[in-house]
Design goal:
The complex is a heterodimer of chains A (650) and B (119). Chain A has 24 helices and 18 strands. With 650 residues, chain A is α/β, with parallel strands linked by helices. Chain A has 3 domains: 169 residues, Thiamin diphosphate (ThDP)-binding fold, Pyr/PP domains (Rossmann fold); 175 residues, 3-Layer(aba) Sandwich (Rossmann fold); 194 residues, 3-Layer(aba) Sandwich (Rossmann fold). In chain A, strand 17, helix 24 and strand 18 form a beta-alpha-beta unit. The chains are: A alpha/beta (650), B mainly alpha (119). The interface between A and B is large, with 46 and 38 residues.
């Protein structure tokens, strides 16, 4: 059954279908209760014969029809779409408004009562999509966004790319006006696209542009189901504005339903082979990256590590392993990999990089950091979703055994296989390894805490000190850390803090696209809100300046989170790159800040201007603790807050 | 041969005076601090040489001025090179003086925020 626009070739029917059907649906006063399809067929063409010009004339045309009651419609396509949407149980929809989805926007608000999903206002589509990204990693399911035709999708593109690289599910609705004769001159043409999703298709998991309401229903369900099947990914369903605004003629089309597919598990034979290799190894090593989504997943990884008593290296694509567990040897990744004879990479984005290095020198060269005969096992779902153009798939790993399947889903079976494969005779050796690793772990932790003391009273404030101060604040709370990966912070949280719950950290942007930290944190904090978790966002200054409006969304929707500015005065990473170039040329070392620095931005004032409680700039480390405690009170009361900390580079 | 050894000594002298070893030069702490900031050592090593994931810790108790000079002229790994043209030996001596002036932090036992983090 097709509910989409029905085209006519009749020259007399140059009428805009929107106006025609609006008139049709409402003509005759009480006729709203009558079947609209029947009415539509009997109403005259009420549109002026001359084509409209933008806005004023367009508005005139829409207010011109003779019968006052022909100005309204009953149930439209967008109402139906909202009903379909509600089946997905999506909590929130973040968006910047756009006329190509005005029908849906209104239906979400009024027909859908602005609940499930509730609309959150954003000041840029990149913010909306990054919010979805941050939310999905915490909640384990997508939230939604709507993107204006052409322009909104282009604004969103960087955030979509991050979500793609990070393999995160997001439901995106794009607006569009497909029928060119239905577009008002001017902006509606510029905001219409023959193929809207094509702009970002290289980094979408799937997209479609349904042409009828029944098609929309199936498409949305398929999109959700695909987004939620590992490897997850962002999907886009482009909805035609005419389809949204068209009154439904007669009965609703049938509605589809969705059952989320079971995730793909790795081949059991492969898992048994991997288990045998690990059980026989003298120095097995586990490397995890984008593996853990749930606490059960983290617990299973601990079980695996303890069965083998093998060191674990967390690449922090997610928080995979408790940071203070004695088998967590992340801070010693170099020597651990160098000593390994079997390395299993669990959902590792770049397994090549686990066992190799490429030097950033004039003539770049790579060298293997693992032993030449060390065996590499890969278990991940990535092979199921690779596109050609964008190169986020990293260098070919040359593995000895690759098992394709979702890591977290396969983990219990791997654990079972390893439990069977480990001979009783090796238990003693395993215990000895455990004892040795416990000792090394204690020494490493002492070393890291000692390292944190250097520059303790420095101003700009040392990044280690910032994190020691924040730990003191959160240690007794149910806390979580959001934002980008912590490389720019020298990984101090992971080095110093006891992180043991899977939701306490969700990894970085995936695509390393700057501008992710602030909005993704707002999305993550939104997901954490109902659990009452205290959310800390360590916020880089350069990242915030891409999307400062994210702060406003947090204020406007009362999303509690403590934003701590890592204000190092600019694009520190790029600064170092240009410095490297200048050093290579033996010239101009003292002017490389041009293009790299962001001095004199008052982040507290910026936040205050959007209604956020803020303190700063703080330069004296002694003032940091009291400021954190003041801001924490605001956050505990349910509001966001920001502290501007003038900090060291890293 | 006396003349030959004298000539050799002269050559050595002229070489060393053209590029006097940093250890033979007197470094100035304040000037060293400024150079350390201006030429960007602090970007990777921190403003008080405390180190981070982009560079090693350099202070307190820095390596000798000569070691620093040799190292930064031809860094063996990923650190960018600072040739003599870009950063003379006097500047290295000044940097060394600055790094040597940096006081060690108090022991962990006297920093409660860190003491609670120690194993």
């Amino acid at each position: 059954m097709t509910q989409g626009p029905k085209k006519t070739k009749d020259a007399a029917h140059t009428v805009g279908r929107r106006a025609f059907l609006a008139a049709a649906a409402t003509a005759g006063g009480a006729a709203l209760t009558k079947p609209q399809a029947a009415l539509a067929q009997t109403q005259p063409d009420v549109r002026p014969a001359t084509p409209t010009v933008p806005s004023a004339a367009g508005a005139a045309a829409e207010t011109h029809p003779p019968a006052a009651d022909s100005l309204t419609v009953g149930r439209t396509g967008s109402d139906f779409m909202v009903d379909v949407f509600k089946k997905l149980d999506i909590e929130y929809l973040a968006m910047m408004p756009g006329s190509s989805f005005r029908g849906l926007h209104e239906s979400f608000l009024n027909h859908g009562a602005n609940k499930k999903p509730e609309i959150l206002t954003c000041t840029h589509e990149e913010i909306a999509v990054a919010m979805c990204h941050g939310y999905a990693k915490v909640e384990g399911k997508p939230m939604a966004t709507m993107l204006h035709g052409a322009v909104g999708v282009q604004h969103a593109s960087m955030a979509i790319y991050n979500a793609w690289c990070d393999r995160v599910p997001i439901m995106m609705i794009g607006g569009n006006t497909l029928d060119s004769t239905m577009r008002r001159p001017g902006p509606e043409w510029a905001h219409s696209v023959q193929d809207n999703a094509a702009i970002v298709r290289d980094f979408l998991k799937w997209d479609a542009q349904p042409v009828s309401l029944e098609d929309f229903s199936e498409t949305l369900m398929r999109g959700y189901s695909l987004a939620m099947t590992p490897p997850f990914g962002p999907v886009m369903v482009v909805t035609d504005s005419e389809l949204q605004e068209h009154p439904i003629e007669g009965k609703d089309p049938p509605m589809s339903r969705v059952t989320v597919p079971r995730p793909p598990m790795g081949d059991m034979g492969g898992l048994i082979e991997a288990a045998a290799m690990l059980a026989k190894a003298s120095n097995p090593v586990i490397v995890a990256d984008r593996l853990v989504r749930t606490q059960a997943g983290m617990n299973k990884l601990v079980e695996l590590a303890e069965l083998l008593q093998s060191p674990v290296i967390d690449r922090y694509g997610r928080l995979n392993f408790p940071t203070m567990h004695p088998l967590n040897q992340t801070a010693r990744a170099g020597p651990v990999i160098a000593a390994a004879d079997v390395i299993i990479c669990l959902e590792v984005v770049d397994p090549w990089g686990v066992v190799n290095q490429l030097s950033d020198v004039v003539h770049r060269f790579s060298r293997r950091t693992a032993k030449a005969d060390a065996k590499v096992i890969i278990l991940r779902a990535d092979e199921l979703l690779v596109h050609a153009n964008f190169q986020d798939f990293q260098r070919f790993p040359n593995a000895d055994l690759t098992i394709v399947g979702d890591g977290e889903t396969s983990l219990p079976y791997l654990v079972e296989a390893v439990a069977k494969a480990v001979p009783a005779a090796s238990r003693a050796a395993h215990q000895a390894r455990r004892a040795q690793l416990e000792e090394v772990s204690r020494a490493t932790r002492t070393r890291l805490v000692t390292e944190a003391s250097f520059g303790w009273d420095a101003s700009p404030i040392s990044v280690a000190r910032v994190h020691a101060e924040v730990w003191d604040l959160v240690k007794g709370l149910d806390w979580t850390l959001t934002g980008s990966d912590m490389g720019f912070q020298s990984w101090w949280p992971q080095r110093l803090w006891k992180m043991e719950k899977s939701y306490q950290f969700a990894g970085g942007s995936g695509g390393y696209g700057v501008g992710y930290g602030a909005p993704s944190s707002v999305g993550a904090a939104l997901a954490h809100r109902k659990h009452g978790r205290f959310c800390v966002n360590i916020q880089s200054d350069g990242d915030l300046m891409c999307n400062p409006g994210a702060l406003w969304t947090a204020v406007n929707h009362k999303i509690p989170m403590l934003n701590i500015m890592h204000n190092n005065g600019g694009y520190h990473q790029e600064w170092m790159h240009v410095q490297r170039m200048a050093a290579r040329h033996s010239r101009g070392l003292d002017n490389v800040h041009h293009g790299n620095v962001l001095p004199a931005i008052d982040y507290a004032k910026l936040a205050q201007s959007m209604g956020m409680f803020a303190i700063g700039p703080i330069r004296d480390p002694a003032e940091l603790g009291p400021a954190l405690r003041r801001a924490a009170e605001v956050v505990k009361a349910g509001e966001p807050a920001l502290i501007d900390v003038v900090s060291q580079g890293r | 041969m006396k003349t030959a050894s004298l000539a050799l000594a002269a050559v050595i002298l002229s070489v060393t005076s053209a590029a006097a070893q940093p250890s033979t030069l007197t470094g100035d702490v304040e000037r060293g601090r400024k150079i350390f900031m201006d030429v960007g050592c602090h970007q990777c090593h921190g403003t008080v040489g405390q180190g981070g994931n982009a560079g090693l810790r350099l202070a307190p108790n820095p390596r000798s001025a000569d070691f620093i000079a040799t190292y930064i002229r031809k860094p063996p790994l990923v650190m960018p090179p600072y040739t003599e043209a870009a950063l003379g030996n006097q500047a290295v001596a000044d940097i060394h003086a600055y790094l040597a002036s940096i006081k060690p932090p108090p022991p962990i036992s006297e920093i409660p925020l860190l003491k609670q983090l120690a194993p």
